Amino acid sequence: MEATMQEIPFSIARILEYGATAHGSATITTYAEASPEGPLPSPESESTTFATIGARCAALAHALHAEFGINPADRVSTLLAEDTEHVESLLAVASMGAVFNPLNRHLADDQIIHVINHTQARVIICHPEYADRLATLLPSCPNVTGALITGSDPSHVRMARSLIRVAGREDIRVLGYEENLNNRASTYPWPRLPETSPAAVCYSTGTTGAPKAVVYSHRSLWLHSLNLRTADSFGIRNGIPFLCCVPICHVLSWGVPLAAFMTGAPLILPGRTIAAEHLAAVIENAMPRQAHGSPGVWTALYVHLSL
């Protein structure tokens, strides 16, 4: 006898589509650093609905395929802050069957170069603030053929293109993230993948020798996301805002962004810094009900608030 229940492979694309439709009004809010004006300055924030993110992920997948030839099994790295574009990159790259690789910007240059070359990444999605760092890395990364610079300011793209060319990589195609999402289709024919296909690869830190790769399958991330919803784990729930203080390069922010799309939990992202004074301002403004972070994050926040 065989089971008569439907068999649909677990995939990141299903998480994305479900979150964008069933929880389309939930939001991701990214906070930017504020200029210090008093003990708790109000940081600027920008919110995007899950429905909009679903459409933007489809547009990003179209851009990666059309402009850089990214196909299933290709690797795409990111040099980004903890922001909405980083979550979009995770969801879009994995959903289209490619492999998402977040780079840890706190590593030494030789370690990041090792990671890029070990994954054989073809494209790097980069925050404009890190473009100068990217330019120093690329001469040692022969597999990289393209870069997407986030934001909508054309001057940032021109500056990144100039830095990369001065570094000797005139062959790399440097494009703007937002301009390449504009006018793209808001749906994408997400491929039906074996659930054991690789979805993401992260690299260990604090080990001997070079950083070590850990490859996550679509199935493993799906099951982990389900687990994060349980009472014995984080208990991530619909409508309960979650502040992510763990970087996406660390186990995909411990898997919380994917679980949030499963449940409709609003995400709060701290942007480029998790400094105590910034987090204090974010918490005061966003009022999250749940959060995660390393012990050092909370110790620093406690000391800051105790002064």
UniProtKB/TrEMBL annotation:
Residues 44-301 form the AMP-dependent synthetase/ligase domain. InterPro entries: AMP-binding_CS, AMP-dep_synth/lig_dom, ANL_N_sf, ATP-dep_AMP-bd_enzyme. It comes from the Bacteria. One of its GO terms (molecular function) is ligase activity. SUPFAM superfamilies: Acetyl-CoA synthetase-like (SSF56801). Pfam families: AMP-binding. Keywords: Ligase. This is Long-chain fatty acid--CoA ligase. It comes from Corynebacterium heidelbergense.
